Amino acid sequence: MRRAKIIGTGMAVPPAVVDNHLLSRCMNTSDEWIVQRTGIKERRVSPDTYRMLLRLAEAPDKVAFMKQVFDQGLDGVIDSTLTVSDLALEASQMALERAGVTARELDCIIESSTVPDFAYPHTGCVLQGKFGLTSTPAFNLQQGCAGFIYGLAMADQFIRTGLYGRILVVGAELLSSMFDYTDRGRDMAVLFADGAGAVVLQAVEGGESGLISHHLHSDGTVLDGLAGEIYGSSTYPAISKKKIDEDRGRPRMNGRQVFVHAVRRFREVVGECLEANRMDVADIDLFIFHQANIRIIEAVAEALKIPFEKTYNNVERYGNTAAASVPICLHEALMGGRIKEGDLVLMAAFGTGFAWGASLLRW
Ligand code: UT7
Fold first, then answer.
1. Rounded to an integer, what distance in angstroms lies between the CA atom of residue 297 and that of residue 249?
2. pLDDT at res. 229
3. Does the beta carbon of 37 lie inside 6 Å of ligand 1?
4. How far is the CA of 175 from the centre of ligand 1 (A)?
5. Which ligand 1 atom is the nearest neighbour of the CA of 320?
6. Backbone dihedral angles phi then psi of residue 148, each to the nearest 5 degrees
7. 59, exposed or middle or buried, with CB in 10 Å at 0-12, 13-18, 19+?
8. CA–CA separation, 58 and 63 (whole Å)
9. What are phi and psi of 240, to 5 degrees?
10. Cα 188 to averaged position of ligand 1 atoms, centre (Å)
11. What is the pLDDT, as a whole number, of residue 140?
12. Are strands 16-19 and 42-45 parallel, antiparallel or unpaired?
């Protein structure tokens, strides 16, 4: 039977580390609050965000400084020094190297980012261009934190049906450019960060190893749970100074609502995956949940009676990197010896949309 097998993984995070103490010099928050409510101690951000935060921490009038940055960029510069496709490229190059294949040998690229380089063309295409490829099909998914799971499911179908033999699936995010790092944006600014993870999938015949099943869902009736309308046909014109002045450029989140939905949907989708494969928790060697908040993972683990040692977590070091969080965990778990040949790994993610899903694989 033809299956899709992961033959290489990779990740990339920007070098700048922002701990909770730096954030608490910018806004009214504390290391204690953030660790207690989320488990996050530090996160990685782009060089631009880092420079901005260092300046904001020293600014006597933080609201005025942040407004100036939103109005004019930092020192009048609005072009990013690091974009989301740069992070995607770095993670992909590592995955390709570990797989022992070149970008030219890919049949398809599936990239997922919540905040793209440009509104269009999509980041999959930008990434493809950075590889110097001129005809490989490239997709872009916008399923937020669930993007990598959706990407795996799509790639698996392309491989099983024989359309493609080798696919790069990437989850990359540069979210830190979105937030207001003063008190007004503190609910979201402490959670999200930048990073990328990638895998190379290859068709294999026979054997047990490879992707097994995928379980995908969305619920578009709860748009206000987590949304960003910076550019879009929900307003005319799609982008305007008035829209920004009315603060509609900033992402919105109802933290409690997201928390409750996340716990419920994780429980359901893990149950669905186990049932579809006639397995139970004891059969799974490692659970990788999207790294949004350690309390969400603890609640799910408790409800499903998953021993906490069977989960891999790094939210403490990277915060919430949305579509990048599952492939970063997968790469780290593999490098750290947490996944061995033959192991069953269940990955699950939940995010904006809402969109969520789970994938089961045997390593
Ligand atoms: O990929 C999915 C993305 N989103 C998520 O995963 C978010 C899921 N939700 C959460 O993780 C949690 O709801 C949060 C971490 C966002 C918030 O934790 P919470 O325990 O639900 O706190 P809360 O929203 O009920 O807020 C409690 C208090 C509020 O103050 P008052 O109204 O009680 O005076 C907030 O204003 O905490 C305040 N607060 C903060 N305080 C210090 C909100 N953000 C902060 C902050 N620092 N950064």
1. 30
2. 81
3. yes
4. 18
5. 1
6. -70, -40
7. middle
8. 12
9. -155, 160
10. 8
11. 96
12. antiparallel
For the Cβ of 183 lying below 6 angstroms from any atom of ligand 1, the answer is: no
Whose tokens are 């010896």? That residue is: 337
Question: Is 331 within 8 Å of 338 (Cβ atoms)?
Answer: no
Burial (CB < 10 A; 0-12, 13-18, 19+), residue 347, is buried
Instruction: Verify whether ligand 1 is closer than 6 Å to residue 31 (CB atom).
Output: no
Ligand 1 contacts CB of residue 259 (under 6 A): yes
Average pLDDT on 48-69 reads 97
Give residue-wise pLDDT tens across range 285-294: 999 999 999 9
Tell me what pLDDT residue 242 has: 87
Cα separations (Å) of 134 from 105, 127, 155, 203, 276? 13, 11, 20, 23, 40
Ligand 1: residue whose CA is nearest its atom 41: 29
Ligand 1 pocket test: pick from 256, 257, 295, 297 the residue with the most ligand atoms within 8 Å of its Cβ.
Answer: 256
What is the helix, strand, coil percentage profile of the chain, to 5?
45, 25, 35
Tell me the per-residue pLDDT of 74-125, one tens digit each, with 9 for 90 and over: 999 999 999 999 999 999 999 999 999 999 999 999 999 999 999 899 999 9
pLDDT for the residue numbered 234: 80
In residues, how long is the chain? 363
In the chain, which ranges are E strands?
2-12, 16-19, 42-45, 108-112, 138-141, 166-174, 194-205, 210-218, 226-227, 252-253, 286-289, 344-351, 355-362
Distance (Å, whole) CA 361 – CA 148: 14
